[in-house]
């Protein structure tokens, strides 16, 4: 069963304008004005304009009279569409092999089999919305079993993310308004006149009278929102995409047959990449079935490669996830991300150098769950939580070394946790402390190590200090704890104690 994500960009025109012109005051309400002949109306409004009562469709003269100092920009649908296309191509490279534009204000993608690379559907949606926000774009996202349901939920709910469990689409869409069915406005108006208010009301009505009066569109949209009628997503493709395809006169379905043709496509793709001096970093296999459904597999590599045997293995390991149904009529393989690849000749030497390449292991693990693979690297900072960062497993060295003058715990907690401590101020280590409900008696201690705040990061850290101690309890476990402040001056910290790390 497919899982479809619909991304709704409710203020795309105004967000695009603000991104293009940072000089616009963020507190100034902004509207986009469309025109037809002498008629001018509000085509889009940012949140500040919405709070002041401005709405889409309102005459431009009325909006200008209601809000003093209103910023009014002429609509540019072509620029909005170009922005949406760029965002769709970005989503294609990051989230799923099957991504398409859903104009004028959305993106749709089939994430079946791809969400695990982002840590699951919940993390995938929240990360997606946060990344759009980081680009200055408001977004809402919903995932359901059908395009129609995801599209409706993303535009009808107030929450930023909505996840409908598998098989519960019907229950989720029954109470949605008729406008969520993607029907023409005149049909929606006529249905409301007849007394229909929700999708559930319309679904409970016999189809024949509706078809006789409104045509087949109402029934088609109902079938699509409930997932009874397939709505294939035609994936977007960059202009310079390296892609190879194979169509079949007779549909195929056997696993060994699929594997054979996937191997041939990998070989063809590598030949095309070689002509351009490129190596693949991310490849997508798109499976077109005879029942008009699309499946996809994505394989990523830690560095650019053109190794036919290795790429074939990455796909072969996941071929069993393909459900051929009544048969596959077409296979396509595309290098979604390709980078320059220069063949390096190994230097001749009398001494055989043994170099261990761990990138194949990274590739295997990464295709099972890409966000779990990373390296830990030091950052030039005295504050412990700022002194470490996650980098790509094959990234270059950052040029900073770990501090060795004081011992550091093997496990640093994500956030310091409050502990209850019995200790003499200002410089004595704790006699005992209670962490997560368990009281521990301190047998040995070393410290304090004073760490000062970084005033250039935050002005509140101008006089802030922490005093760290390495303590060992009577069971032999070692912990890294600190007191906020110097124990004398209240301006330096709250004098509360925290546990920040655990030693192996």
Automatic annotation (TrEMBL):
Q: What InterPro entries does the database record attribute to this sequence? A: DNA/RNA_pol_sf, DNA_pol_Y-fam_little_finger, Rev_trsase/Diguanyl_cyclase, SulA_CellDiv_inhibitor, UmuC
Please give the cofactor(s) recorded in the UniProt entry for this protein. Answer: Mg(2+)
Q: Which residues form the DNA polymerase Y-family little finger domain?
A: 244-334
* Species annotation: Rhizobium lentis
Might you give the EC number(s) for this enzyme?
Answer: 2.7.7.7
Assembly mode: Monomer.
What is the name of this protein? DNA-directed DNA polymerase
Q: Which reaction does it catalyse?
A: DNA(n) + a 2'-deoxyribonucleoside 5'-triphosphate = DNA(n+1) + diphosphate
Q: Write out the GO MF terms.
A: damaged DNA binding
Tell me the function of this protein: Poorly processive, error-prone DNA polymerase involved in untargeted mutagenesis. Copies undamaged DNA at stalled replication forks, which arise in vivo from mismatched or misaligned primer ends. These misaligned primers can be extended by PolIV. Exhibits no 3'-5' exonuclease (proofreading) activity. May be involved in translesional synthesis, in conjunction with the beta clamp from PolIII.
